[in-house]
Design a protein that fits this description.
Blueprint: E1 5-8, H1 12-23, E2 28-32, H2 39-43, H3 56-68, E3 73-77, E4 81-87, E5 90-95, E6 100-103, E7 105-108, E8 112-114, E9 131-133, H4 134-142, E10 158-165, H5 181-195, E11 200-205, H6 214-224, E12 229-241, E13 244-251, E14 256-262, E15 264-269, E16 271-273, H7 277-284, E17 311-313, H8 323-349
Parallel strand pairs: 1-2, 1-7, 2-3, 7-17, 9-15, 10-11, 10-15, 11-12
Antiparallel strand pairs: 4-5, 5-6, 8-16, 12-13, 13-14
Helix pairs in contact: 1-3, 1-8, 4-5, 5-6
The chain binds flavin-adenine dinucleotide and iron/sulfur cluster (SF4).
Flavin-adenine dinucleotide binds at residues 8-14, 31-34, 39-41, 46, 49-50, 80, 109-112, 114, 134-135, 138, 180, 184, 269, 271, 274, 276, 280, 315-317, 321-324, 326.
């Protein structure tokens, strides 16, 4: 009889891992610190997802129901792991609800933390009401409220989306590219244009990284079909005059200062390491990589291996990842964890 696999974190990566394991008959225990499953797309109320165009509540909600309805998955929400010890095939974890569980292997799918835009004060978030983040615009759309200026509820006529907020910024210690925010922003720009036909949407960028096939369906489509305007610029500051926000900077293509008024400014926030990572690293005895994400070994051996044998990793816990890649990594880590669980089961039976 094999011991269950412990999965920590119930976002897209953890849900994929749980589904994979259960579908091949392996019992698992899914521990999630919040009171519901679904990870960032559900907890932060994302709207339509890239690249499927499906509503997050349907797409990821479907993954949640599939796991909740599987008897081989024991779910513990509102719970964290406080202690973890043992060896591959025979781990022991003490949970915050006081229970101790046995596990053959573990998968950490603890995800990321959204960048907090107050750490970029010169761009107006936290000072001016109509400076918001991409997650707030996602929530406005997914709640059915529509895109409105928080100050007075009016429909914005001009919206600026500022890319790379909290990413690719050495001054605030965040060198990494968050990978998905160019595409998410192009998608949001099209959603705004779809809802508010007379609203002009501008995207301020350093470089556009709508990677792979997203170049056609997001970068070019947003310009050609939805008339979204792109400005390559270095932004100096966002200020306010009467009910307008003023974005000041330099157009780096023509090398001239530009000052444009807007009704709403949106920060395309990046993906920070999970704020729990130091604790997770200590409890599970695993290394972090230099930026503070959870370190993973190269992919040529066991997929998703960490510095500790028998403990695997998947999704945005390893660094910025898209949902599709987080799901793929969840399935792959499940294979690695299953091999450990089965190996231990065989030894016990012999
Ligand atoms: C504004 C925005 C929009 C985005 N839109 C898209 C999109 O349209 N398409 C796309 O592909 N990607 C999108 N992304 C990226 C997407 O959010 C991630 O790819 C995805 O959430 C990663 O899934 P995950 O399961 O690895 O992590 P998460 O979604 O972060 O889930 C991690 C889970 O672990 C839990 N957890 C954390 N710490 C602990 C702990 N110590 N103990 C127990 N549980 C814990 C969390 O509560 C959470 O439920 C977007 C990102 C942003 C910032
Ligand atoms: S994906 Fe685009 S917006 Fe996000 S950090 Fe990379 S370049 Fe900046």
């Amino acid at each position: 009889m094999t011991k269950p696999v412990l999965i920590v974190g119930g976002g897209p990566a953890g849900l994929a891992a749980a589904h994979s394991l259960a579908s091949i008959g392996q019992k698992c225990i899914l521990v999630e610190k919040e009171d519901r499953l679904g990870g960032a797309p559900i907890l932060s109320g994302y709207a339509k997802l890239v690249p499927s165009g499906e509503w997050a509540k349907d797409a990821i909600g479907g993954m949640v129901s599939r796991v909740e309805n599987n008897k081989l998955v024991e779910i513990k929400t509102g719970t964290i792991v406080n202690e973890f010890s043992g060896n591959p095939g025979s781990f022991s974890a003490k949970l915050s609800d006081g229970k101790t569980i046995k596990a053959s292997s573990a998968i950490l799918s603890t995800g990321f933390t959204h960048f907090d835009s107050v750490n970029k004060p010169e761009w107006g978030f936290g000072t001016f009401e109509n400076v918001v983040t991409t997650t707030q615009v996602e929530q406005m759309i997914s709640s059915g409220q529509g895109v409105r200026c928080p100050s007075d509820g009016r429909k914005p006529k001009r919206v600026a989306i500022l890319l790379c907020v909290g990413s690719r910024d050495r001054q605030i210690g965040r060198e990494w590219c968050s990978k998905i925010c160019c595409t998410v922003s192009a998608n949001l720009a099209m959603e705004i244009r779809e809802e508010l036909e007379d609203c002009h949407v501008y995207i301020y960028y350093m470089d556009i990284r709508t990677f792979g096939l997203y170049e056609t369906s997001y970068y070019w489509r947003s310009q050609e079909e939805f008339k979204v305007k792109y400005i390559k610029a270095r932004i100096a500051e966002v200020t306010q005059k009467d009910d307008k926000l003023i974005v000041k900077g330099e157009d780096t293509l023509v090398k001239r200062p530009i000052t444009i008024p807007f009704d709403m400014v949106v920060h395309a926030i990046g993906m920070d390491p999970n704020v729990d990572n130091m604790l997770i690293s200590t409890i599970f005895g695993i290394d972090l990589e230099p930026h503070g994400f959870i370190g993973k070994q190269n992919s040529y051996g066991d997929i998703g291996a960490t510095s500790r044998p028998g403990v695997f990793i998947a999704g945005a816990a390893t660094g910025p990842e898209s949902i599709d890649d987080s799901i793929a990594q969840g399935h792959a880590a499940a294979m690695s964890a299953y091999a450990v669980a089965q190996g231990a089961g065989k030894v016990a039976a012999e």
